[in-house]
Amino acid sequence: MKLLLDENLSRRLIGQVADLFPGTVHVSSVNLLQASDVEVWEYAKLFALCIVTADGDFYELSITMGAPPKVVWLKVAIIQRLWLLSSFVTRPFELPSSCKTQSGLS
């Protein structure tokens, strides 16, 4: 599985998850830094990326537009975001089932 980190998350997080999620990108690296949520959504859909965000707007889009793409909404304090993403590396089996395929992580 490849992740698309939203602009409200640090670009430096890619280094934390790159080994487990190769191909992960930040919106800034694909010219979507100030793009609308719908543009980010369509990009993630086109390239089969799972959006990781701290923004509830993507949750709303997932309800109205449906998947794909899949969305991981980090509803934690800013200080805890780095810890949470780094926990993906140490405990990937605890990712939401919506981000897994039948054979495990994609």
Outline the structure in words.
The structure is a single chain. This protein is 35% helix and 17% strand. It has helices at residues 13-17, 37-46, 57-65, 78-90; strands at 2-5, 25-26, 49-53, 71-73, 100-101, 104-105. The chain has 106 residues and is an alpha/beta fold. It has one domain (2-101). Mean pLDDT is 80; it is low at 100-106. The radius of gyration is 13 Å and the shape is globular. The strands form two sheets. A four-stranded parallel β-sheet has the order 2-1-3-4, covered by helices on one side.
Radius of gyration: 13 Å
Mean pLDDT level: 80
> Order of strands in the sheet with the most strands?
2-1-3-4
Give the helix/strand class. Answer: alpha/beta
In terms of topology, how is this protein built?
Elements: E1 2-5, H1 13-17, E2 25-26, H2 37-46, E3 49-53, H3 57-65, E4 71-73, H4 78-90, E5 100-101, E6 104-105
Parallel strand pairs: 1-2, 1-3, 3-4
Antiparallel strand pairs: 5-6
